[in-house]
Amino acid sequence: MLEPFYAKTPLVAGAHHVLDRVWKAADPQVQKMYGIDFIQGIRKRSEQLYNRSMPSKWVVDAAVAAIRKKSGAQRARILVGFWWVSTLIRLQEMLPSFMVDSVTKWAMKRVGTWPRDPFLLKEEKSD
C-alpha cells in the first residue's frame, strides 16, 4: 500500500478552484460559521501546499520499485514523501488522539483555517 504525501498533480494544483466553488455553493449559515478569514486562509494554504508538494515522479518510482522487488515489497505500507512526513505520521499514530486533536486545533487556529464560530451550526433555528 503506497501512502503518498501531496504530489504536484493537477488535482492538487486545482484544489483552490474546487474550494471556491464549494464555498460559493455553501449555505449562508455555514459561511457565517467559518467566516471569510477561513476561506482566505484555506486558499493561501492550498497554494502553499502545492508549492511544497513533492514531485509526482516520487510516487511512480516508489510503485515501480515495490513491483520490481523479486521478493515483493518489504513492507505492506510504504509512506512516500519527504523524511518529515513519515516521522509526523508515525508520531500521530503513537500519541493519544486527544493530544493529536489538540495540536491539530492549535495549528489550524494559528494558520487561520479553524472555524470562526464552530458552535453556530448547533443553534436551534427559530421559525
Tell me the β content: under 5%
The biggest beta sheet reads: 2 strands, parallel
Query: Regions with pLDDT < 50 over 5+ consecutive residues?
Result: none
Mean pLDDT: 81
Rg computed from alpha carbons, rounded to a whole number of angstroms: 19 Å
H/E element sequence: EHHHHEHH
Total number of beta strands: 2
Tell me the count of domains.
1
Report the total helices.
6
Strand order, sheet with most strands: 1-2
Question: What would the keywords be for this entry?
Answer:
single chain, about 130 residues, two-stranded parallel sheet, globular
Walk me through what this model shows.
This protein has about 130 residues and is mostly helical. The chain has one domain. It is built from six helices and two strands. Strands 1-2 form a two-stranded parallel ribbon. Helix 2 packs antiparallel against helix 3. The longest helix has 25 residues. It is globular and about 55 Å long. The mean pLDDT is about 80.
Short description:
This protein is mainly α. Helix content is 62%, strand content 5%. A two-stranded parallel ribbon has the order 1-2.
Topology:
Elements: E1 2-4, H1 10-13, H2 15-25, H3 28-52, H4 57-68, E2 78-80, H5 83-94, H6 97-111
Parallel strand pairs: 1-2
